[in-house]
Structure formats: C-alpha cells, structure tokens
Amino acid sequence: MRKPLVARVAVSLACCALATAVTSPVSLAAGRPAPAPTSPPSGASSAAADLAGTPERPDDDAWSLAEALQFWTPERIASATDPSGRPRSALNGRGTSPRARAYGGRQFAGISSVGILFTAGAGMRTHYCTAGAVQSKGRNLILTAGHCLNSKAVFVPKYDPSKTLERQPYGIWPVDEWFADKRYVRNSKGPESDLDYAFARVKPSGTRNLQDTVGGNTLARPAAPENTVTTIGYPHVGRNPRDRPVQCTGRTQALPGYNQMRIDCAGMWDGVSGGPFFATLDRARGTGKIIGNVGGWNGGGPGVPASHPAYNRISYSPVYSDRFFRLYDDADNGRHNDFGPYVQPALPFAMGGWEQWQNARLLASGDFAGDKGDDLLVVWSDGSVVLYQGSATGDPRHPFSTVYRLAAPGSIWRHARAIAGGRFAGSGTDGLVVRWSDGELSEYRHVDKTGFHDEKTLAKHANWQNARLIAVGRHTPGALRDDLVVVWANGSVAMYADVDSKAVRRGTFLARPNRTWPHAVQISSGRFTGRNSDDLLVRWVDGETTIHPGVDFAGLHGEIKIRPPRSPWSRADVVTAGAFGPGTERNDVLVRWRDGSVTLHPDVDKAGLHNEARPVQ
Q1: What is the pLDDT of residue 215?
Q2: 3-state secondary structure string, 473-506?
C-alpha cells in the first residue's frame, strides 16, 4: 500500500547460491477522498495493460520455479517496494495520535494461506504486496489488489525471512496468469478505484497444487460496509524489523463516495496492499472467509505523507459486488471478459473518518434541507463545500443521513474566512453569511441541496478583513434569526441587527476594544439558557468555554463557564451550535477536534455540558 524507504533485507545470504544454479461523502491535497471524473486521466492505463506485451499472461513458458529462484535474488528482494500510489514511507514519520479510536495491529506467526507476492514492474523495478490463496477448481488461485499486478510474479505463502526462497515452509509459486477488471486504472482516485482487486493462477509445484498445500479461503460479499474483520498484511521491514506479518481486528465503515470500506488499524505500513479482510478466520486451518482486500482509492489509503498518523492507520478495501464475482468466475475458468464501463451502485451514506474531518475548515448549522431540523454545512480546506442533511432520528451517533456536494474542490470557497447560518426570510430554507478574504461580507438568503441562492453584498471594504469571528442569531425582537455578532481583531464585539434588510450600515458595540476578546477563537449563537434572545457560545484559546446568556443590544450579560481554562477544549478547532437532536431547540454543540474526530454534545444548558456522543465516522 505504501512505498518503503528501507527495503526488505532479511532473506538469508545463503540464497545467493541460487542466483547461479507484488484513494466526499474525500482530494489528495486535503488528504481525503473526493468524487472524481469517471473517465481515466490522460495517460492512465489499466492494471492489466501495465504488463508489456501480453497483459494477462507472462511472455513465455519459462517462468518456472527454477526461473523464479534465479530471478529473485536477495538484492531484488531487498529493493522491492509497494506499488501503490502512496507517498514513500520515511522512517522518521511521526504524527499526533487522534482521539478517534484505532484498532492496534500486532505481529504474529502468520497463516499458511496468506503470504508475500513479489513482482517486477517497468524497468524491472521490483515490488511486493500481500496475497491470499482462494478456492478454485484448479486449486491454484490467489487474490490480491489490482494495483499489484505485474510481471515476474511469485507468491510465497507464510513468508519466513530467516529462510532462503528455496527453503520457504510452503514453497514459492510462480504466477502463470493474471485476471483483472479491464476497466480498473492503477492507483486511481476515481470511481474505478472500486475495482482494485485481481486474481492470479500460480503454477503447480511438481505434482502439488497450492490449495492442497496451504488451504483455500472462501470469498463472500459483505451485506453492508460495516463489518468486523481481521486484516492481514506484510508491512515493510523498515517499520517491521522482525519482518513478520501483522494482523488487526477491527470494525469497518463505508468510504464516502466509493463502493469501498475503510478501517482504522494502526501498523499497516507499506506492503499490506492486497492483504485480505477476513470476516471469519480458522487459525488452526489457516483459512477463512474473505470479504475484502487492501486496495481501492489511491491504492488503498489516504494521500498523506508518512508523518501523518493516517498513513499507517487507514486502509481501504473494495466492497465485493456482482462484478467481482464475475471476475472470480472468469479466473476460475480461465476466461478474460470485458465487463464494460463501470457504473457505481447506489452508495450508502458515510460521514467520513477523522483523516477527512481534519480538513473541515468551517462549519455552519441551519435548516438548509427544509425539513425543520438543522443540517450541517462544511467548507473543506480544498475549497469544496458539502451539506450533511440531518437524520431526524434523535440519535446523536447518527445525526446525519445524506450528503450533498454544493461546491467542488478549488472553488471560490477557498477564500471564505468565516461563515454563520441564519434565517433571513419568513419562508424557505435558512441562509448563510460569509466573510471573504478580501473583506467582502455576503449573505445568501437561502441555501439548499442544490446550492447557494439570492446572494447580496452586505459590505465590501478592507476593514471587514478584521472581522475575525462571526455568529448569526436572534438577538433582537422578531421571528427571524438574522442578527450578526462580530468579534473584531482589536477585541471589540459588535452586533448588527436585521442584516437582510439593513445590511451592516450601523452596529452597536457590545464590548469596546480590549485585551480579552482577541483570545476568543470560536463563537456560535444558540439557545442554551431559555432567555428571550439567543446566547453566545465562546471557545477561548486556552480551552475555557463560556456562554453569554441572552445577548442583545444591552450587552453580553456576564458569562457562564462550561469548560475551565487549560481544558481539552483548547483543541476544539471548529465549533457550531444547532438543533441536531430530536427537538428543535438549538442547544446541541458539534465539535471538530484538531485530530479530526467529531463529537456532538446534546442539550447544553446553563449547567454546562452533559453528554458527549461520537457520531459514527
């Protein structure tokens, strides 16, 4: 899955004598998958076409056991890298451990049906992946990732680095023929990354067949992307000095925008590409039921540097569908059919993992879907904008049900510096106030599933570049939530009433310039104390979090401390209040933490925070 800097070097030098005798609803820049065009990029090639001359079968019948032993010298094994699209893994990669739960991978002795797949690519550059034996009529079939398909391939079940290739416990098995989906594009970040799987038929070893020697795994389609699985892979020796396989048991979730699964398992470094996802595993027999393999978007992991904690923790897998089993049947019968253009199936809703949410730059809540509950609008660091529609279930672990893309990566929303949702008209959906990087202040009277509507300019002056924080609430008499609160760079706090009709021509100071408010880093209007006007939630730089009750033209009216200074809330990077629960009161607080985890705190009141829920990511 990742390219190693330190190569596999543990094969005994005794092997030297043999030389003479194996991507929303998230962009690469943002480190999260995002839907991509369905057509391959210019110059892209299918995995099968990457084999020069004959795409599916080695170019001569001489690729025998003896030839494999002669070709795979210790030097070639030592230089082998993972062929995925991941950045190269440096040994000093470090990262802050996210609050989000990671399942821990651990070394173990391995199982007989899973091993290393060595391959050679263009210019005879050598690679390695993980593969597993699967049941077949010919009893010589293995499964790996599509991006692992290459020439000079040899499968080494339960690889033992202390022994030469000639003395491996279950032998070595040269690949005779490859079977891959002809519409798969190697290391794609588009929909065709759903097809990152391949089968290979290996040659018998004398009179022995692979399945008779190591056993054969069964294949099954998962009922849903959420599964408990055990994944097995061979990370590169630089991160795995004992050069042993790693296993990790954890829970998968759907990958937004793709027919793929995602798992958070620490320790899955370069080399685990193609490694099986076992739904069940009989360790005594060394076989089980496989429902996935490491692969998919970008070759099976987020496009982040090795220093990022997601690099070794997050792995993807295709979700096996009818198309996968048609390929399996072809491989079992020696056929090479073209299944035609790939069309993604209807995809389940997925909120996305912490590695995606680290890039959620701005949040705003409001009834944007017109269903009387609050939805969540997210501006990502790559300039894309999505709308998460509220689920109306009242379940804080599943506050949203559908996602809509309102703007693509690279859009003008890269220049948005602050946003706040409000209600600016008596009918229709809620809208949005936006402060842009050039000082323009805009209002979209309505935002809905199709985009942003009825834009008007409230101000266009460089002075508004100093408007650090904004919130919109009902702070004056009236039915609309259309009063703007601004925290300025000099520490002053001002309120502008009825911005839809009056713009921001005249404001009222709630606080004159001071040395306290420059330390406010997040504000949001909400209904926490039952006053006639909305309250103001403030998160301060040191983690202290306060509520100013009933903010109106008369002032801020003191504060209620709900989190003390030096609390973990110093890492609550983006905060918004809304009605995300079963009721319509805007007293639920959603937090995107620095590590990308998301929490929801329902029913916040003057007594403080009561519960913390973690929406399923």
Answers
A1: 97
A2: ECCCCCCCCCEEEEEECCCCEEEECCHHHHCCCC
Q: Which of 469, 495, 468 is nearest to 484 (CA)?
A: 495
| pLDDT tops 70 at residue 162 | yes
d(CA 19, CA 239): 28
Determine the pLDDT at residue 270. 73
Residue type at position 6: V
User: How confident is the prediction for the chain on average, in pLDDT?
Assistant: 87
- Distance between CA atoms of residues 456 and 362, nearest Å: 20
Strands of the sheet containing 560-563, edge to edge, are 520-526, 535-540, 545-548, 560-563
Residue 261 burial (CB < 10 Å; 0-12/13-18/19+)? buried
Summarised one tens digit per residue, pLDDT across range 215-229 is 999 999 998 999 999
Banded pLDDT at 331 (limits 50, 70, 90): very high
Identify the H or E element spanning 455: strand 451-460
CA–CA dist 305, 327 (Å, integer): 33
Tokens of 546: 């306060």
Q: What's the whole-number mean pLDDT along residues 435-440?
A: 97
CA distance 357 to 599: 11
Please state, in angstroms and as integers, the Cα–Cα distance from residue 343 to each residue in 183, 346, 387, 413, following that order. Answer: 11, 10, 24, 30
Give the model's confidence band at 101: pLDDT under 50 very low, under 70 low, under 90 confident, else very high. low
Residue 97 has pLDDT above 60, yes or no: no
Residue by residue, what is the 3-state secondary structure of 98-132?
CCCCCEECEECCCCCCEEEEEEECHHHCEEEEEEE
Angle at CA of residue 23, ends 113 and 389, nearest 5°: 115
Please state the φ and ψ torsions of residue 69, each to the nearest 5 degrees.
Answer: -65, -35
Does 60 have pLDDT greater than 80? no
Q: What is residue 108's predicted lDDT score, i.e. its pLDDT?
A: 92
* H or E element that contains 78: helix 74-79
520 pLDDT tier (thresholds 50, 70, 90): very high
**How many angstroms separate the CA atoms of 322 and 60, rounded?**
33
User: Residue 499 in contact with residue 473, Cβ under 8 Å?
Assistant: no
Cα separation, 358 vs 167, whole angstroms: 47
CA atoms of 164 and 167, how far apart (whole Å): 5
- Separation of first and last alpha carbons in the chain: 22
pLDDT at 238: 60
